[in-house]
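dumping this here so i dont lose it
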């Protein structure tokens, strides 16, 4: 499934660069990501649905973990919100080629429209949603209000995601993006569900719930790191 919003427009030169970057990214994905040794500490919600459980969620991840999560959750029924910036276009095209569905927009460009579209897909869809909580331009590892707003409006529980990668290259981007090295071990932990009331006001969303999600993200990451420290 592909979720479309307003189509981005690029110059021929920009389009050529995006296509080249997408092709290179797909090659790199197949060379690297397929070698990762991924273990989930908790079953993804898609697998729980396969067992007959009627569950759905909104996964919250750090922007630096997009590459790792795209490899770890390949084949899962997940829709991701991707920035309309050129970097986001590159990631969206890779994601769509790998079978992910996307909603375009961010907190700085197309944000209100994208969040409303994300909320609609969240209410009407059958799979899970995924949102980078500190994107598209940071500050890194600081939860923004878009997540809590979307979660309250789509009536899905937030599931904080913690990711730990044993060996990785760290890019010089604003988020310090991780790209795992070949055959590296990856551990993914899910925090407890956070249910944000649909009628929560702005002060409550940007106060209590932002703090709660941020703390839960840190706990999930610490749990993933602890699992990674244990061999096996």
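and the seq i came up w/
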């Amino acid at each position: 499934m592909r979720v479309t919003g307003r189509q981005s427009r690029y110059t021929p030169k920009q389009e050529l660069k995006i296509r080249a970057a997408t092709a290179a990214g797909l090659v790199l994905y197949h060379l690297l990501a397929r070698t990762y040794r991924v273990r989930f500490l908790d079953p993804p919600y898609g697998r729980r649905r396969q067992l007959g459980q009627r569950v759905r969620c909104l996964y919250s991840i750090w922007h630096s973990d997009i590459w790792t999560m795209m490899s770890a959750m390949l084949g899962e029924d997940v829709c991701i919100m991707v920035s309309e910036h050129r970097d986001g276009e590159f990631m969206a095209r890779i994601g769509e080629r790998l079978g992910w569905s996307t909603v375009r927009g961010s907190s700085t460009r197309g944000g209100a429209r994208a969040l409303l579209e994300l909320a609609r897909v969240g209410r009407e869809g059958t799979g899970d949603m995924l949102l980078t909580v500190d994107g598209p331009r940071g500050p890194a590892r600081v939860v923004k209000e878009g997540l809590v707003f979307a979660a309250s409006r789509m009536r899905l529980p937030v599931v904080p995601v913690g990711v730990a990668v044993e060996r990785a290259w760290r890019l010089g981007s604003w988020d310090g993006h991780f790209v795992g090295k070949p055959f590296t071990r990856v551990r993914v932990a899910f925090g407890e569900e956070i249910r944000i009331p649909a009628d929560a006001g702005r002060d409550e969303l940007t106060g209590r719930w932002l703090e709660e999600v941020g703390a839960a993200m840190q706990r999930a990451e610490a749990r993933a790191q602890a699992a990674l420290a244990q061999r096996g």
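Helices lie at 12-32, 45-50, 66-72, 86-97, 111-124, 145-154, 202-229.
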